[in-house]
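Checklist before submission:
- one chain only
- standard amino acids only
- sequence pasted in full

Submission:
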Amino acid sequence: MNRDVLEFVTFCIGAVAGRHGLSRNDVYSRLKTSGILYGYIIPSYDVLHTFSSGYIVDDITDFMRKKGVLEA
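Returned file contents:
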């Protein structure tokens, strides 16, 4: 993983944590165990990083809800 992707992942974790009042560690754990981090966010970096922060957080939030790692 290069520096740009790492910074993006860090941003995503922090932004989702802030939106939902969760700790960054909790969000990281949920994303990792659900497969969203390595199965979606990292592989989709080239496309995702072009969207607004609000869109990114909404997208990840929806995916987390679909995977059952975040309540509706």
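Reviewer check: The radius of gyration is 11 Å.
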